[in-house]
Amino acid sequence: MMFDFSGTLSRWPDFAMGAVTTLWLSLASAGLGLVLGGLGAVMAGSKHRAVRAIPNFYVEAIRNTPLLVQIYIIYFGLPAVGLRLSPPVAAVLALGFNAGAYASEILRAGIEAIPRGQFEAGRALGLSPLRTMRLVVARQVLAAMYPALVSQFVLIMLASSLVSAISVADLTATANDVQGLTFRSFEAFLVVAGIYLGLTYVMRSGLTALERTLCKFKFAGR
Questions:
Q1: Segment 157-195, tens digit of pLDDT
Q2: In this structure, how many other beta carbons lie within 10 angstroms of the beta carbon of residue 36?
Q3: Beta carbons within 10 angstroms of residue 213's beta carbon
Q4: Which of 43, 60, 104, 118 is the most exposed, fewest CB within 10 Å of its CB?
Q5: How confident is the model at residue 141, as a pLDDT?
Q6: Is residue 13 packed enough to be buried (19+ CB in 10 Å), middle (13-18) or exposed (0-12)?
Q7: Residue 222 resides in a domain
Q8: Distance between CA atoms of 24 and 26, rounded to whole angstroms?
């Protein structure tokens, strides 16, 4: 078998646009997931049983159903109740809700990993709960949860390949289009695999640099 990448590589603008789409979808979904995860973690620590039940149900529902099914429910199911979303918006919501379930557990575990004595020491010093979190707990929680969050956000970026099923023009959809034009499936998907590797490296490097910046940041309050 002879490999011919000429036809595939000549369509590099299409791959570049697909990479941009994959990247912004991933970042938007990670941001939404972080917000939902934070809310879930806070609610999971509530003293009220009914409040705790909400994130518990959310996490179990998301973690025990396939992501592709969740994408289909949002994109094909919501129009049945009068809510029609564009493919990119549906993709961000599906990926964001999926990321939020996992982020919620990561954040909850990070908070619970901090000894209760840290909170009590803050209160003994006369600090408010907010200042205790900022001055005493935040850096420790960040160190405990950050690596797991980075891995989860990278997984979300890789899982974004599923949104091609609802006509989002991401990298995987681009590969499908290119291989249909060139009839060189192996070459098209090999190029896309290489781009995913590059995006993964960029995302990990960027988030690692952000971690170093955050660790240097002084959670000072006045």
A1: 999 999 999 999 999 999 999 999 988 899 999 999 999
A2: 21
A3: 9
A4: 60
A5: 75
A6: exposed
A7: no
A8: 5
Please tell me the total count of domains within the chain: 1
CATH number of domain containing 32: 1.10.3720.10
* Domain range enclosing 67: 6-216
Identify the pLDDT of residue 4. 84
- Is residue 16 one of the residues assigned to a domain? yes
Count how many Cα atoms sit within 13 Å of the Cα of residue 219 in the half-sphere of its side chain: 15
Place of tokens 């809310």: 39
**Tokens 């420790």 found at:** 140
The rounded distance, in Å, linking the Cα atoms of 67 and 163 is 10
Residue 53 has pLDDT above 70, yes or no: yes
**pLDDT at residue 154, rounded to an integer:** 94
Question: In this model, does residue 221 exceed pLDDT 70?
Answer: no
Q: Where are the alpha helices (DSSP H) in the chain?
A: 6-9, 12-44, 49-63, 67-72, 87-112, 116-124, 129-132, 138-159, 171-182, 185-216
- In-domain check, residue 13: yes
Q: Is 30's pLDDT higher than 90?
A: yes
pLDDT of residue 215: 63
* Residue 113 forms part of a structural domain: yes
> What pLDDT score was predicted for residue 192?
96
Position 118, amino acid = Q
